[in-house]
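Deliverable D2.4 — example input (C-alpha coordinates):
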Protein backbone atom coordinates (compact mmCIF):
# COMPACT_ATOMS: atom_id res chain seq x y z
CA UNK A 1 0.00 0.00 0.00
CA UNK A 2 1.23 3.48 -0.81
CA UNK A 3 1.09 5.90 2.10
CA UNK A 4 1.53 9.68 2.09
CA UNK A 5 5.16 10.65 2.87
CA UNK A 6 4.24 11.93 6.34
CA UNK A 7 2.66 8.60 7.26
CA UNK A 8 5.56 6.65 5.77
CA UNK A 9 8.00 8.73 7.82
CA UNK A 10 6.14 7.78 11.01
CA UNK A 11 6.16 4.12 9.95
CA UNK A 12 9.92 4.26 9.47
CA UNK A 13 10.47 5.98 12.82
CA UNK A 14 8.50 3.29 14.65
CA UNK A 15 9.97 0.40 12.64
CA UNK A 16 13.58 1.36 13.38
CA UNK A 17 13.12 0.49 17.05
CA UNK A 18 14.59 -2.88 18.05
CA UNK A 19 12.06 -5.69 18.15
CA UNK A 20 9.31 -3.74 16.37
CA UNK A 21 7.85 -5.04 13.11
CA UNK A 22 4.76 -5.03 10.88
CA UNK A 23 4.04 -1.30 11.11
CA UNK A 24 0.93 -0.15 9.26
CA UNK A 25 -1.72 2.53 9.62
CA UNK A 26 -5.17 3.70 8.68
CA UNK A 27 -7.51 6.62 9.02
CA UNK A 28 -11.12 6.50 10.15
CA UNK A 29 -13.85 9.12 10.12
CA UNK A 30 -15.21 9.01 13.67
CA UNK A 31 -18.10 11.38 13.07
CA UNK A 32 -21.32 9.43 13.20
CA UNK A 33 -19.82 6.44 15.04
CA UNK A 34 -22.02 5.72 18.06
CA UNK A 35 -21.44 3.67 21.17
CA UNK A 36 -23.69 0.96 19.72
CA UNK A 37 -21.58 0.81 16.54
CA UNK A 38 -18.60 -0.30 18.60
CA UNK A 39 -20.16 -3.76 18.96
CA UNK A 40 -19.71 -4.39 15.22
CA UNK A 41 -16.72 -6.49 14.12
CA UNK A 42 -15.50 -3.91 11.59
CA UNK A 43 -15.19 -1.38 14.43
CA UNK A 44 -13.06 -3.67 16.64
CA UNK A 45 -9.85 -1.72 15.95
CA UNK A 46 -11.29 1.56 17.24
CA UNK A 47 -10.43 2.88 20.74
CA UNK A 48 -13.61 1.75 22.49
CA UNK A 49 -12.92 3.27 25.91
CA UNK A 50 -12.24 6.73 24.52
CA UNK A 51 -15.21 6.64 22.15
CA UNK A 52 -17.64 5.35 24.77
CA UNK A 53 -16.81 8.36 26.95
CA UNK A 54 -18.28 10.62 24.25
CA UNK A 55 -20.84 8.09 22.94
CA UNK A 56 -18.92 7.91 19.67
CA UNK A 57 -16.90 10.24 17.53
CA UNK A 58 -17.11 14.00 17.74
CA UNK A 59 -18.22 16.25 14.90
CA UNK A 60 -15.56 16.32 12.15
CA UNK A 61 -13.27 14.01 14.14
CA UNK A 62 -10.92 11.56 12.45
CA UNK A 63 -8.58 8.95 13.86
CA UNK A 64 -5.17 8.20 12.43
CA UNK A 65 -4.04 4.89 13.85
CA UNK A 66 -0.58 3.33 13.70
CA UNK A 67 -0.34 -0.38 14.42
CA UNK A 68 2.78 -2.40 15.16
CA UNK A 69 3.83 -5.75 16.56
CA UNK A 70 6.68 -6.78 18.82
CA UNK A 71 9.04 -9.71 18.84
CA UNK A 72 8.82 -11.69 22.09
CA UNK A 73 12.06 -10.28 23.53
CA UNK A 74 13.37 -8.02 26.27
CA UNK A 75 14.66 -5.67 23.57
CA UNK A 76 11.17 -5.29 22.14
CA UNK A 77 9.75 -4.59 25.61
CA UNK A 78 12.30 -1.78 26.03
CA UNK A 79 11.18 -0.35 22.70
CA UNK A 80 7.54 -0.56 23.80
CA UNK A 81 8.37 1.22 27.04
CA UNK A 82 10.16 3.89 25.01
CA UNK A 83 7.19 4.36 22.67
CA UNK A 84 4.81 4.45 25.66
CA UNK A 85 6.91 7.19 27.26
CA UNK A 86 7.02 9.15 23.99
CA UNK A 87 3.25 8.94 23.49
CA UNK A 88 2.54 9.89 27.12
CA UNK A 89 4.93 12.82 26.90
CA UNK A 90 3.31 14.11 23.71
CA UNK A 91 -0.18 13.66 25.21
CA UNK A 92 0.89 15.61 28.30
CA UNK A 93 2.04 18.33 25.91
CA UNK A 94 -1.41 18.63 24.36
CA UNK A 95 -1.56 16.06 21.55
CA UNK A 96 -4.73 13.98 21.40
CA UNK A 97 -2.70 10.80 21.43
CA UNK A 98 -2.77 7.44 23.20
CA UNK A 99 -1.22 3.99 22.98
CA UNK A 100 -3.12 0.81 23.70
CA UNK A 101 -2.99 -2.93 23.16
CA UNK A 102 -5.22 -4.76 20.69
CA UNK A 103 -5.87 -8.50 20.48
CA UNK A 104 -8.41 -10.92 19.06
CA UNK A 105 -10.39 -13.46 21.13
CA UNK A 106 -8.41 -16.44 22.51
CA UNK A 107 -10.25 -18.80 20.15
CA UNK A 108 -12.09 -18.51 16.86
CA UNK A 109 -13.96 -21.68 16.05
CA UNK A 110 -11.45 -24.47 16.51
CA UNK A 111 -8.46 -22.17 16.04
CA UNK A 112 -6.46 -20.90 19.02
CA UNK A 113 -5.48 -17.26 18.53
CA UNK A 114 -4.09 -16.58 21.99
CA UNK A 115 -0.43 -15.67 21.77
CA UNK A 116 -0.64 -14.78 18.07
CA UNK A 117 -2.69 -11.60 17.71
CA UNK A 118 -1.24 -8.99 20.11
CA UNK A 119 -0.66 -5.66 18.44
CA UNK A 120 -0.18 -2.11 19.66
CA UNK A 121 -2.10 0.91 18.43
CA UNK A 122 -1.02 4.51 18.59
CA UNK A 123 -4.21 6.54 18.20
CA UNK A 124 -3.99 10.15 17.02
CA UNK A 125 -7.37 11.85 17.41
CA UNK A 126 -7.86 14.63 14.88
CA UNK A 127 -10.66 17.07 15.72
CA UNK A 128 -11.90 19.57 13.15
CA UNK A 129 -10.94 17.39 10.19
CA UNK A 130 -12.40 18.47 6.88
CA UNK A 131 -11.94 17.21 3.35
CA UNK A 132 -8.35 18.48 3.29
CA UNK A 133 -6.14 16.15 5.33
CA UNK A 134 -3.04 18.37 4.96
CA UNK A 135 -3.27 19.77 8.51
CA UNK A 136 -3.56 16.26 9.95
CA UNK A 137 -0.67 14.98 7.84
CA UNK A 138 1.39 17.93 9.12
CA UNK A 139 0.61 16.74 12.67
CA UNK A 140 1.83 13.25 11.74
CA UNK A 141 5.02 14.74 10.27
CA UNK A 142 5.65 16.61 13.54
CA UNK A 143 4.99 13.46 15.52
CA UNK A 144 7.45 11.50 13.37
CA UNK A 145 10.03 14.27 13.67
CA UNK A 146 9.63 14.20 17.46
CA UNK A 147 10.02 10.42 17.59
CA UNK A 148 13.13 10.58 15.40
CA UNK A 149 14.62 13.19 17.73
CA UNK A 150 13.79 11.12 20.81
CA UNK A 151 15.46 8.10 19.21
CA UNK A 152 18.58 10.15 18.44
CA UNK A 153 18.69 11.47 22.01
CA UNK A 154 17.94 8.22 23.82
CA UNK A 155 18.79 5.55 21.26
CA UNK A 156 21.80 4.41 23.27
CA UNK A 157 19.39 3.34 26.01
CA UNK A 158 17.66 1.09 23.48
CA UNK A 159 20.90 -0.37 22.20
CA UNK A 160 21.79 2.13 19.47
CA UNK A 161 23.69 -0.56 17.57
CA UNK A 162 20.42 -2.49 17.34
CA UNK A 163 18.46 0.35 15.71
CA UNK A 164 17.46 -0.55 12.18
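Example output (designed residues):
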Amino acid sequence: MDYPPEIERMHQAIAQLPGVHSVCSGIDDLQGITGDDLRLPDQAHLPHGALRRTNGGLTNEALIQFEFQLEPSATAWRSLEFIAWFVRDRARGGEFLQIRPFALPPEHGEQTQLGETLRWHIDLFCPDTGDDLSPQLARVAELAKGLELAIRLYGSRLGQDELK
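The chain has a mean pLDDT of 91.
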